[in-house]
Write the structure tokens for this entry.
Amino acid sequence: MIPETTGPVVLFSLPLAAAVVVFIRPRWSVAVTLASGGILLATALWVVVAVLRRGPWRQDIGGWTAPLGIGWTVDGLSAALLLLMAAVGLAGAVFHAARPTGRTPVRDPRFFWPLWLFLWGGLNALFLAADLFNVYVALEFVSIASVGLIGLAGGSAQAAAWRYLLATLLGSTIYLLGVALLYGRYAALDLALLADGVEPDLVTAVAAALMTLGLLLKAAVFPLHFWLPAAHGRAPPAVSAVLSAVVIAAAYYLLVRLWFGPFAPLLGPEVATLLGLLGAAAVLWGGLQALLQRHLKMLIAYSTVSQLGYGLLVFPLAAAGAVQQAWTGAVMLVMAHGLAKAALFLAAGAIVLRHGIGRLEALGGDQQGVVVAWVAFAIASASLVGLPPTGGFVGKWWLAQATLATGGYFWLAVLMLGTAFTAGYLWRALQAAMRPGWETSGGLQALSPALGLSALVLALGAALLGLAAPIAARLLDAGSGVAG
Amino acid sequence: MGVAGVIFDGLLALALVWLAWQATRAADLFHAVVSFIVFGLLMALAWVRLEAPDIALAEAAIGAGATGALLLSALDRLASRDGRHRMLYEPATAWGFWIPAGGALLGGLNLAAWKLPAPGLGEEVLASLKLSGVDHPVTAVLLNFRALDTLLEIGVLLLAAVTIWSLGRAPSPLVPAMPSPALPALGRLLFPVFVLVAAYLLWRGSHAPGGAFPAGAVLGAGAILMLLAGARPWIRSSEHGPWRWILSLGLAMLLAAGVTGSLFGGAFFEYPTGIAGPTILVLEVAAGLSIALLLFALYLRGEPCEHGYRGAGT
């Protein structure tokens, strides 16, 4: 019997080793990526089952215990995100391998694969890390890989990648300042050690403010979202999918880890309300902007700004007392959003390839070859809006229960209004399929069915997440920061 | 620390702030870049004053040397494009937002640093030093206690090189025409010294300040100097030949070391008892080679030619 601690070792090492292999031998890229993607998905499932069975665990690296050494934490939250990454990573790789070459926006496909695997490895390292500095290095990894992947689309995407680089480096630096302050104050970088020793004094408050600011910038929370729509809207489809689904969720994951871990004593009603108001503003502003977009991928990109806002509602609701419900609901929403958003971007990628243009007015007419993609788009939309029985519905339902339990009717109104916006802009996108289209010369008739199918599998995952809600709730309860 | 030390540190701090101001606010870009390079050198001096010679070496080689050379090359390309050396606009947000925000941040951090007890982990590191296989605490932290961070950092360097390659080919010509005849001769003369210093630093790392990062930085900076002196960039992006292997060597070896620990029933990155010292030495050599070549590759500003360069070169 292989011990569960092997799971994280595989999840950490395999993507990086595969990245090295495909860098040295580009000819093997697709085979190596798909094979390791399959193994990573199986391993992530295994880790999820292990957490469900025996609860969360911590493993030390190199046999050194904190504060000297670094550790990995595997609990329900990290296992869920590792699984999300594996699903999106594999589906994105299938999509990219099946895209028609020749007229693709990716200028130099040779470097897509190592960058993709590096991003995967960096995100896995981030979700495993239990050490604030290790998190910083993983964040750098994720940022640079994301910048490279966005820039692959060439043209205006390179300008977007540059803006993203500046924004995300600023975020990392601000985060690192906070980490340095915490180390100077407590001589510890380990999350669990800090959670035991933190006192609500000035230095800790400054560190918390800096780290939160850096992460809010990386999570593109309103009003720090300025870099997101261009970067996510112009990147190659698979890249947009992983950025919106997982990279944004990674910054959110750290916010939750910190504020329900070491910074929990600082989470007073004022801070929680401020974070909640930022979330509410993001929900409404992002939703409004998405309604006004004319380009399919930009619409989906603004939707990310809006949907991540829901995640921040966890802070005021938890501070008001409904910790468990709010926490499970928000994380469930982020997971469902990840799957659905990745499905939307992949479907949109196939649709734009079919029509040769991304403007909403042009997407109607003959849909030969992208019917499956539109079906995936519709199912993913249902989950984002929150129709039962999807994962989006369950997440919103739990969040709504938390608002009712705490009497937070303002947050309930935000939730409802955001849902109305979501329904509005996704309806606009779906409606585009029904209209008479433009005759464009750039479209392609013969698209690989794998393009639509990769989106469909993710969309079905978002839908099935709702049916698996009891298991998801048990997983997220397993050793979340809340339980302690 | 005597009065002279306090005065020196105070002047150093003031000079750093002033140079940072110059580097960001000077209207003339050349002036800004030179300020940045001097800033890097004084920063290295500050690290020496803080008794962190390892960081000082890396700061001087990378912060001042390699980055400065990159900025100067960028400036040269800007000049050849439109002949302007000056920033023509004054961003309105600077005085309204960035300067007050930066000032507030600097003040707040100073205040916080003043209040910090700064306990550190020095004693814990020294207590476990015997078990780590090396005698120098910095090396013990980098390649044993926190080897996972080092693995990711070398990964970041490789990732940065791949990202730069993905943006396009290296510009040609790589370096501006060199007006000074002295530099090529000096470069040829100095390169063996760079190699020697790098090898010495690498070997020294097990018991004194040195190790893979400073050694790789010095070697990489030496290679960049050779390039500036007119040498042909011998690195190729072809899948044949050793270059991709050497670039990935550091990350691959560290991954292998980590996984080996797990395979033999220990934790990830647990070195087998008794041979931690030799293992670390092998990892340092691999990491140092990769770092040197990666820094050089970063300086090329793009994917090098696949099959060699034609044209001028010494």
In short: Chain B touches chain A through 52 residues (CB under 8 Å). Residues 136-314 of chain B form one domain. Residues 53-82 of chain B form the longest helix (30 residues).
